[in-house]
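Sequence, please.
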């Protein structure tokens, strides 16, 4: 008997909806039996039509038949389960659901992994229990999707119907009854139609996004190349400028040595000339003193004859030689030389200042990212008769969004400009002395230029 039950199971004791052994079997007026939950869920989907159909013979019933448990069939199924029916009907290739898998809603005991979910039945099925949706004409209009846990989100909470209509006016999914009620005058389409339209828009957006990504990647590559080239060029320029300034320093050291030697040579020559003149004057003094001594001696001679005879040999006083013009100023110094050196210093400072301004401007012009507005304005002003002031003023502009907001000298192109306004004072040789909102000046003594 048990063996016969196993044979009959496939034809008589399976629910044609879930394809599993009948659970709480009920029989509808046409004579077919189903699981109580399966037939109730099946009819719930068509309740708004007012017609209730048998899934097998397609006979219509109106009103909805009352369901009563088929106790005899329930006893037979229970007896068959005890006699080994459950083992006979268990598929050989089971794929049990793991922790993160969607479980089959039909399987009893340990659940198999669901592969499809039906948006009409609102249930998920494994490979075995989904077969009726492929084979039976009763499920031909049912929509299968990949197994999901979000089936309840596809049901209207008000009417408990499938959300198969999209309201463009309110931008939400509604069911058929919502469409015939409060959304009657709205712009509505089938959810599937709207999905297809949104998919096309999404495809266009993805294509546009890909083009933008490609464009930005190309720009990023070009920017990297520009940074690499600029970095390499900056390193070479720094090394070459070091060579130039080293040569300039060496040249200035040579000039300093030449000026020192020139002063020493001039001192030696002038002192030598003065000493030669001093020796000549000293010799004349000695000769005059010698003649004076002889005259004094002769003036004390008492013998008249001897005096007269000696007087005949007395020479007339020598005529003093003409001496060159001698500067006898006790404060004689190299002051004019220092004046010339200071004047040279002033001229050199002005030349260096102009040169540094030119260098800074050219350095600042080297840029990868162009600023939105002119970044700086440079003014060079001079004071009155007492001196001159070299001042470089720069009005900073806000950098592009995302760049550093550090306040720095606008003449340094390797640092980003900040959003504030600041004035920097530089020494005549381009060295920054101070920074701030107030004007600070470096005063130097004015020297008259030589004609």
């Amino acid at each position: 008997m048990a063996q016969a039950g196993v044979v009959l199971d496939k034809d008589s004791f399976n629910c044609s909806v879930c394809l599993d052994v009948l659970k709480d079997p009920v029989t509808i007026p046409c004579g077919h039996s189903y699981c109580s939950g399966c037939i109730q869920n099946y009819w719930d989907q068509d309740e708004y039509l007012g017609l209730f159909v048998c899934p097998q013979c397609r006979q219509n019933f109106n009103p909805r038949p009352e369901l009563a448990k088929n106790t005899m069939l329930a006893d037979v199924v229970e007896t068959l389960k005890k006699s080994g029916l459950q083992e006979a009907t268990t598929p050989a290739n089971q794929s049990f659901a793991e922790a993160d898998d969607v479980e089959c809603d039909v399987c009893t005991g340990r659940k198999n992994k669901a592969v499809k979910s039906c948006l009409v039945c609102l249930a998920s099925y494994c490979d075995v229990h989904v077969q009726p949706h492929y084979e039976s004409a009763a499920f031909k209009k049912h929509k299968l999707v990949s197994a999901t846990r979000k089936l309840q989100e596809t049901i209207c909470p008000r009417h408990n119907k499938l959300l198969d209509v999209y309201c463009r006016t309110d931008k939400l999914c509604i069911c058929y009854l919502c469409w015939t009620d409060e959304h009657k005058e709205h712009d509505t389409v089938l959810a599937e139609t709207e999905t297809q339209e949104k998919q096309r828009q999404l495809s266009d957006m993805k294509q546009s996004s890909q083009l933008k990504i490609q464009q930005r990647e190309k720009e990023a590559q070009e920017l990297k190349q520009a940074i690499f080239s600029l970095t390499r060029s900056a390193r070479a320029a720094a090394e070459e400028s070091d060579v130039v300034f080293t040569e300039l320093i060496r040249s200035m050291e040579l000039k300093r040595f030449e000026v020192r030697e020139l002063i020493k040579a001039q001192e030696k020559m002038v002192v030598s000339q003065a000493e030669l003149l001093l020796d000549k004057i000293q010799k004349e003094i000695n000769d005059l003193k010698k003649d004076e001594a002889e005259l004094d001696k002769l003036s004390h001679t008492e013998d008249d004859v001897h005096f007269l005879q000696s007087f005949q040999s007395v020479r007339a006083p020598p005529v003093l030689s003409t001496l060159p013009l001698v500067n006898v100023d006790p404060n004689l110094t190299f002051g004019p030389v220092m004046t010339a050196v200071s004047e040279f210093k002033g001229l050199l400072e002005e030349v260096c200042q102009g040169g540094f301004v030119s260098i800074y401007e050219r350095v600042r012009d080297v840029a990868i990212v162009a600023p939105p507005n002119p970044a700086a304005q440079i003014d060079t002003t001079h004071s009155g008769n007492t001196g001159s002031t070299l001042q470089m003023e720069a009005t900073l502009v806000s950098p592009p969004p995302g760049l550093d907001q550090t306040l720095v000298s606008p003449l340094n192109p390797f640092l980003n400009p900040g959003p504030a306004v600041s004035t920097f004072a530089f020494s005549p040789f381009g060295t920054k002395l101070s920074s701030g909102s107030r004007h600070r000046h470096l005063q130097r003594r004015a020297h008259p230029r030589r004609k």
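Confidence is low (pLDDT under 50) at residues 1-10, 85-90, 375-451.
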